[in-house]
Amino acid sequence: MNRNTLRTSAATVMAAVAFGVAAPAATAAEAPSTPAAQSTLSAPHARQLLASPEISAELGAEGRAAVAAVAAGTASAAEERGAASSAGKALIALIKKQGGAFFKKAVSAAKGGAASFKRWAENLPWYHPVRLLVAASGADVIDWVIRQITG
Questions:
Q1: How far apart, in Å, are the Cα atoms of 120 and each of 60, 100, 109, 135?
Q2: pTM for this one?
């Protein structure tokens, strides 16, 4: 190899590294960010919430309407936030309904973070309404619930 071949190869490698680093950074800069305070619920998660009678009963009339709008894909931004809030409140109500010892276990799992809380819920029986609601809730809803029960 001669000197020109080495320089050309080095320049090509440097350009590839620059584009490899710059392209994802540019894409990340262009992507819209959602504030952490705004929790939303996806349509598949909303359909799962409505499918369970125990969970649907905890949502209340307004909550069911907001979750149904999200499930149908016709929800406004305010209805999406309302549906997520209703799902979080239903999850807290279901946890409290199970008794004091159950609530304490949920709080101690929540203090370990979202992964710990999900792991705790996954260890419940497959038919348990709390497990079903945690599985149907999005990450934003679970984070909100964790802040509520640990704070």
A1: 26, 16, 6, 12
A2: 0.69
